[in-house]
Design a protein that fits this description.
29% helix, 8-stranded mixed sheet, 9 helices, single chain, Rossmann fold, alpha/beta, 2 domains, 293 residues, 4-stranded antiparallel sheet, 15 strands, Alpha-Beta Plaits
Length: 293
């Protein structure tokens, strides 16, 4: 089956609304793409990072009438408010090949595998997570996620409580649950990430994971806090994280460039004994143990 693609060239403020409408009118997937060659670098806590100019891309089955979709969009928008758009065809063969080339089963540590749904499990006795690429970040392909997954695989999580702060796709929370954590909470500022995490938890049979939007989350003491976000938010969140990790508990952070590691670690030394950074490519993971107050 071939696909049809509808691209809407719009602003950040309107991207969310258009995404919701495309989903309502039958899009199989909706993604956001930079439409102004402006990189998003360091969003602060509470911010959903998007570009000033955003291309909202809807993917539709080949039998969907996009003229009808456009008509429905016009009916829900103010007069003459439909943004510039483009329609194109995507042959299924090319789409599938590109997807398979970029995403395939991956092993982390000794026990943990991330397996796309199009593939069979490499080792049925391993800890296998079923996950496909989506809008929310986190599939294991990025070094920061890989660093965190490898750390989780190498530690005994039995009976531990885990908080995945900035859970994205839910991959770290799901891994923690499958590796034996007794309770797992995922938190994200982005409602689409919350939805993705819940859906992925259901697919993997770990629906006991509690996923919340940041505005609903009330901090609680945990044994392990995971935060794969970015350096500046991590520095700002240090006092809050210190109040969430019980004495003797562990903090695992990534999304940090190697040259940022010392500054991020310094923000936590008042509360945590910090280990040397673990590096993969230009990215690092930081680990610390909470000292008693």
């Amino acid at each position: 089956m071939a696909w049809k693609q509808l691209q809407l060239h719009t602003t950040t403020e309107r991207a969310g609304r258009l995404s919701d409408l495309l989903t309502k009118f039958g899009a199989s997937a909706v993604t956001f793409v930079d439409d102004g060659d402006k990189p998003v670098l360091e969003p602060g806590p509470g911010e959903v990072p998007l570009w000033d100019m955003t291309c909202v891309v809807g993917l539709f089955d080949e039998d969907v009438d996009l003229d009808e979709v456009l008509q429905k969009l016009r009916s829900k928008l103010a007069p003459n408010d439909l943004p510039p758009y483009e329609i194109s065809d995507l042959p299924d063969q090319d789409w599938e090949r590109a997807w398979m080339d970029d995403f395939h089963p991956m092993q982390f540590g000794q026990r943990l595998w991330i397996v796309p749904t199009a593939y069979q499990e490499q080792d049925p006795t391993a800890v296998n997570i079923r996950l496909d690429p989506g809008l929310a970040f986190g599939t294991g392909t990025h070094p920061t996620t890989a660093l965190c997954l490898t750390w989780l695989d190498g530690h005994d999580l039995g009976g531990k409580s885990v908080l995945d702060f900035g859970c994205g796709s839910g991959i770290l929370a799901i891994a923690a649950a499958k590796l034996g954590a007794s309770s797992v909470v995922g938190v994200d500022i982005d409602p689409q990430a919350v939805t993705a995490s819940r859906d992925n938890a259901q697919i993997n049979g770990v629906e006991e994971i509690k996923v919340q939007q940041s505005s609903e989350f009330e901090g609680k003491l945990v044994d392990i806090l995971l935060a794969n976000i970015l350096a500046n938010p991590l520095k700002d969140l240090a006092p809050e994280f210190a109040q969430m990790v019980r004495p003797g508990g562990e903090l695992v952070m990534s999304g940090i460039l190697a040259e940022q590691a010392a500054e991020v670690a310094a923000a936590y030394t008042s509360w945590f004994d910090m280990d040397p950074p673990v590096q993969r490519d230009e990215w690092v993971m930081l680990h610390g143990v909470r000292r008693p107050d």
